[in-house]
Structures are given as C-alpha cells and as structure tokens.
Amino acid sequence: MRPTCILLFMCVTFLMWIPGCTARYEANWGSLDARPLPRWFDEAKFGIFVHWGVFSVPGFGQFSEWFWQRWHSEKQPELVEFMKKNYPPGFKYTDFAPEFRAEFFDPEIWADIFKASGARYVVFTSKHHEGFTNWPSAVSWNWNSMDVGPHRDLVGDLAAAVRKRSLHLGLYHSMYEWYNPLYLLDKASGFQSQKFVASKTLPELVDLVTTYKPDLIWSDGDWEAPDTYWNSTQFLAWLYNDSPVKDVVVTNDRWGKGCYCKHGGYYNCADRYTPGKLPDHKWEKCQSLDTRSWGYRRDMKLSEVMNLPSIVKDLVYVVAMGGNYLLNIGPMADGMIAPVFEERLRDLGAWLGINGEAIYATKPWRVQMENSTVWYTAKNNTVHAIILHWPSKQILQLTAPRMTGATNVTLMDYPDVLLKWEPLTPTAGLRIFMPAMPKSLGNAWCLKLEGVV
C-alpha cells in the first residue's frame, strides 16, 4: 500500500473518534444520506458501463462475468462441459489470467466510441468479484493487470482518455471476492472479524480515490455482510469530508446487506431496476446491451442484443421517471469492442445529437407519460414530448399539456419550423399537425412544447 494511502486509511478509521473533531458528515446514515447529490450526475442522464476482466477470456455462458463461481462452486453442466472440451484436465481459473492480454486495447478508441454515444460518464470495472484488479493494487498479491496479463494500468489508461474528452470517470468496485482466503475467514466467523476489510477492501477503495480521483464510485458485492462489517459509513464520511473528490464524487447504494434502495448517494436498487411510478430519490438503471450477460460472451447471438429502438425506449422511460441510464458493454479479452456494440452506441449518439435537448439536464414533468407512447420531460419553461409511435394521418393528440397565449410547437428534426396546432378543449390538450415523418433509427421523435403548463 502506498504511504499516503496508509495515512488516509487511518483517517477513515479514526477521524470520527478524535475528541473535538467534528466532520461535516458524520459516520452514520442519517448524516450521510442528507448529503446533496452533486449536480453533474443528475444533468448527465446517460453513462456507459464497462465489464472487463479475466472473465472475458473464457467469455462463455449467461452472466459470463460470474464464470469462475458458476463453474467452480455451482458446477453448472454447460460450463463444466465447455471446460472439458476446450481446456486440459487440471486447468484452473487463475490460468486464464495470462491470456487476458488486452493486446488490442486502445483507450483512445474506446473513449471516442463512448463520446460518440452521447454518454456523459463512464463507469469502468476496477475489480469484479473474482478479485482481479485492473490497476496495480499493492494489496492484490500478483492478481492484477500490471503483474499478469496486460502488464498495464488499465484503469489509469482509460481514465486519461475519458477525461481528455470531458467525460466523467466512474469506477466500479466489488467489495467482496469469492475465493479470497481472508474474506472466507471473515465469513466463517459470521463477519465478526474484519481482516479482509482492513487489509483489502478499504485500502483498495482509498487507493482508487487518491490515485485516480473518480467522480463516481459504483460499489457492488456487498450483500453477504452488513455495512458495519464493511465500515461503509466511515469510508463514506472520509470520502465526503476529506478526500480529493469530496465536492464532486457520487456514490450508489450498495454498501452492505439491506442498504440498497435505502442508503447511499443515488439508488441502483437492483440490476435493471425499473420503478413503476416516479421515485422520490435519484436513481439509475443499469442495463446491458447483451441481455444475457454483463461480460463478453463468445456465444452471444444477435437476437440477444438490444436493438436501437429498445435502447431509446428504455432511455426515454428512465429519464422521464427522473433516473439516469447506465448502458453496459462487455469488451473482448483482447481489448476489442464488438462491432455490434459500437454500432448501437454510435447510432444512439446520432439520435441524441438530434434529440438530446429532451434528455440532458431535464427534470420529470408533472405528467410522465400518456397512452404508453408519449413520454414527457421538462427543462426550465419548456416541455418535451417524446413520441414512440408516429401518429396515423400525421395528427397527434396530447391531452396533458395546457396551452397559453405563448404556446409554440416544433419537432426537433426541424427546429426552425413551427408546427400548426389547435386546442383539444378550451382549457387543455393540443391537436398537432405533424410534418412528413423524418427517418429515425430509434423510432422515437421529440416535440418541443414552449409556453405550455
């Protein structure tokens, strides 16, 4: 561990116990949950999630990022047969690490794709549940990307490229590790001991923060033990009070068993979380382009990859309901991004290039949706109606907006052309006469409604 990290880790552990030393945020959920969410996150709306690690080498089966656990512990027949056919007897999961070479990994190309997608932040896997770190963690033994495999600081390389393009950097970090002997000792004690937390989890989190200064920490792997085992509140108090990112950093809600959707910064709740009504707390939906896995799968079929209309529909729903949309890709072990993933991301960026005003920095409107085909967002004095089905006979009826003497309607594809409209009733609703349907790969179009209430 770096000397500076040791000192900072001591601060995390002891700062709250020094008499007379009162931090702005105390190490309890009541204080931490009251911290305002940094503004940049709510305004960003859309980010890219990247799952990449040793699991990308076998790259096989549903939830391929869980390959080790499902092969070794669950002994899933499909994975057992896969290993018998393709690898010699006695082959261990750790033997995959030298094959994780990332020989074609070019962080500049990745960052260009992410920028072109319209994303405003990127969340990169620093360490998944397998424990392999994508940076030279000093407490990872040799189970890291500098000592084996790529022989590179993958986190540092991507961080530099992402920031060069003015994108916010987020780091995913798994708190637990399936087969780490220190974690298994703590688990056997009923989590009464904290050897793994003291020597691995917290030092790595402090190292990530002080070395790479992420704008977001996406915590995971917390669900087997309570937050008191992880010392989560102590870490977050240091993060919010004294860390180098204290004023900008955003955190999620996965900090211990029972914490998700209850404590932390914004709420992930569960993977692919999709609330049925407008939440009263900032939230994020993480969704993978490959609907069967977060990590890369060599057995992926095109029919299992989200198409652009389904991505746009998902994004629009999430934003209209006040959330952020975190769309995941799983690169190949050699560092290549599958062409179908790149195509989806670039096409989404093209759609956002026309309609982004209805997405970025918007707020939920008083009505979120009508007729299951129109979603609303709001920004300042403007309301956006995002339509997912082009109206028959080119006449669109909206019942929710109330017009005023200053009402104007434009289609974002033709921003300089005012559309004709008439009231549905004397007090509410618009009948809009639409122009010829412009092409949209996403099968979604945005109306800008000015002067409506």
Automatic annotation (TrEMBL):
Record keyword Transmembrane helix present: no
Enzyme Commission no: 3.2.1.51
Catalytically driven reaction(s): a neolactoside IV(2)-alpha-Fuc-nLc4Cer(d18:0) + H2O = a neolactoside nLc4Cer(d18:0) + L-fucose; a neolactoside IV(2)-alpha-Fuc-nLc4Cer(d18:1(4E)) + H2O = a neolactoside nLc4Cer(d18:1(4E)) + L-fucose; an alpha-L-fucoside + H2O = L-fucose + an alcohol
Domain Alpha-L-fucosidase C-terminal per the UniProt entry, residue ranges: 372-450
A Pfam family it matches: Fucosidase_C
Keywords per UniProt: Glycoprotein, Glycosidase, Hydrolase, Lipid metabolism, Lysosome, Signal
Protein name: Alpha-L-fucosidase
